């Protein structure tokens, strides 16, 4: 592509309507080889008296050609214009001076493209190059992308996870003080961010049960199923009293303080203050003892059984560790989760694959809610980017699917988070299943290949009219190719994400071969080792040769091993099992 102020015209404007225009294309014998390749998706420039209009070709046809001088016609979307300036030309979105009939249509030059995509300040990150001209770097405005939320959308296998790793690494490089919280659904980002990230999983997370609000603790106790109304009434009554009792215990040693009635403390079931599980059970037991009706006693007995079952399940140890001891550790939990202070690790990766499936939704709800509330009550002095992988699982379009409080928590961040320094990044392979209201709050979209018609139509409704025609390219995008729309980019742009270093590739990129290893040794010892690991994940016992025994954290501040819960397997025994572990 020639580096020139102007290129030979390959057509002329024959009609103008709103943000669109139609150009007549000259016969090929009058054109250069580059102009002959002027097809759908190519940027063009239209020279007017006072500016250069930048447009994109959305359709080319040889039907209904006006006059004999043109061989075809093209529909173009008007995107913005380059205005001359005292020092250098400047690009702006929108068109103030519309083209007129007969204005020359030219292939855009590299010089014009560089003016359009020139970084406007230091707050830009380099994410790749333009598909039309690989010599032009594509920049994204961090402030616009973060403060108005963003989404990365694409089918499985198109490079979506790699794109997320690239974006977050570039953001951390440009803004090392920004805190990032990533929900890692498939435990694939553990090694992507090196020593800048703290990896949390069920083996080193401490998330006390009393931080869960009423809806969330009910979801835990009833394993994701609807609660029994009679049991919920009992819980709603005794939880505030248990919180009041804990206040009594903490004040008991203070001389001169009057003993208060736990019912008069004024706490609700949602107030994030500690209470002890033993107090909760004793309060329920006390009420059960006063009842003479056997059928009513059964309700209380079932509720106690539910609490005891969950309390004794080793998979829930991250919630119920020290459940009967108490202690207000909320400040330590918030500090640890959201990296305050960061201590050189501004990012938290929450690996969700090892959590019991029944409580994943409620855990995500707690994390989203606490992220927003901390931003709210701190007046947004410490900004946080909350990245939600597989977002359609937590904020589904169908209100009958999923956990309502989780959708509500994500929705609050989407609608109000920017006021309090809590920014949202959504990652999804099924945007049609994502709540449209939440997606509409993301003002920068990175759309990768999407084959599903519903996904494409929802995406089309989420972008401006000028960019909607570009979405016809979505099904044919290559791996790592992306259409970027919105506030974070200068124009609706087809670009290619740059190569990501090997150490920053998500684990899913290191595809597991479908050909079994000849040295795997698929015998009964192999099966027994797998079963030992499987059972060990749901038991309290420590098994010999367990790599997790020496790695299990003794204190809250230690790092989690970047693997899913594994107990009972010597890592050197079977090579086949080593790959998923690390």
TrEMBL record:
Cross-referenced Pfam families: DUF87 (PF01935)
- Taxonomically, the superkingdom here is Bacteria
The residues covered by the Helicase HerA central domain are 125-370
- In Swiss-Prot or TrEMBL terms, this protein is called Helicase HerA central domain-containing protein
């Amino acid at each position: 592509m020639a580096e020139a102020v102007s290129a030979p015209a390959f057509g002329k404007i024959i009609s103008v309507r709103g943000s669109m225009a139609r150009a007549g294309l000259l016969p090929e014998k009058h054109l250069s080889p580059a102009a002959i390749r002027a097809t759908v998706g190519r940027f063009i420039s239209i020279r007017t008296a006072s500016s250069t209009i930048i447009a994109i070709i959305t359709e080319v046809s040889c039907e209904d050609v006006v006059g004999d001088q043109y061989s075809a016609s093209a529909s173009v979307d008007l995107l913005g214009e380059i205005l001359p300036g005292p020092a250098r030309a400047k690009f702006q979105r929108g068109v103030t001076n519309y083209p007129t009939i007969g204005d020359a249509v030219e292939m855009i030059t590299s010089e014009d493209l560089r003016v359009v995509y020139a970084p406007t300040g230091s707050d830009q990150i380099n994410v790749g190059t333009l598909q039309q001209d690989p010599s032009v770097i594509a920049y994204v405005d961090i402030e616009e992308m973060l403060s108005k939320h963003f989404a990365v959308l694409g089918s499985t296998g198109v490079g979506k996870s790699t794109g997320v790793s690239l974006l977050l690494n570039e953001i951390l490089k440009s803004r090392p003080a920004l805190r990032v919280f990533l929900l890692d659904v498939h435990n694939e980002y553990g090694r992507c961010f090196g020593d800048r990230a703290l990896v949390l999983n069920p083996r080193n997370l401490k998330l006390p049960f009393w931080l869960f609000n009423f809806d969330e603790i009910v979801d835990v106790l009833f394993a994701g199923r609807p609660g029994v109304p009679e049991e919920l009434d009992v819980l709603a009554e005794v939880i505030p009293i248990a919180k009041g009792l804990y206040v009594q215990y903490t004040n008991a040693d203070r001389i001169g303080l009057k003993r208060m009635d736990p019912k008069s403390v004024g706490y609700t079931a949602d107030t994030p203050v500690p209470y002890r599980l033993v107090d909760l059970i004793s309060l329920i037991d006390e009420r059960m003892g006063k009842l003479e009706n056997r059928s009513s006693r059964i309700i209380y007995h079932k509720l106690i059984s539910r609490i005891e079952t969950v309390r004794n399940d080793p998979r829930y140890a991250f919630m119920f560790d020290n459940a009967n001891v108490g202690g207000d550790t909320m400040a330590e939990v918030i500090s640890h989760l959201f990296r305050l202070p960061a201590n050189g690790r501004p990012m938290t990766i929450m690996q969700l694959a090892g959590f019991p499936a029944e409580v994943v939704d409620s855990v995500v709800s707690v994390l989203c809610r606490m992220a927003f509330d901390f931003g709210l009550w701190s007046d947004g002095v410490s900004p946080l980017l909350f990245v939600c992988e597989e977002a359609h699982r937590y904020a589904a379009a169908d209100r009958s699917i999923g956990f309502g409080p989780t959708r509500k928590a994500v929705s609050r961040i989407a609608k109000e988070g920017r006021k309090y320094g809590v920014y949202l990044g959504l990652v999804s392979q099924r945007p049609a299943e994502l709540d449209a209201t939440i997606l509409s709050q993301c003002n920068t979209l990175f759309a990768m290949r999407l084959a599903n018609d519903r996904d494409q139509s929802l995406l089309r409704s989420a972008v401006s009219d000028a960019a909607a025609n570009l979405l016809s390219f979505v099904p044919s995008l290559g791996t790592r190719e992306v259409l970027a729309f919105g506030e974070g980019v200068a124009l609706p742009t087809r670009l290619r994400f740059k190569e990501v270093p090997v150490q920053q590739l998500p684990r899913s990129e290191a595809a597991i071969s479908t050909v079994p290893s000849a040295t795997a040794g698929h015998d009964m010892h192999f099966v027994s080792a797998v079963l030992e690991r499987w059972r060990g994940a749901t038991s309290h016992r420590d098994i010999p040769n367990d790599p997790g025994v020496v790695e299990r954290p003794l204190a809250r501040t230690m790092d989690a091993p970047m693997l899913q819960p594994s107990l009972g397997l010597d890592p050197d025994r079977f090579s086949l099992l080593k790959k998923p572990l690390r």
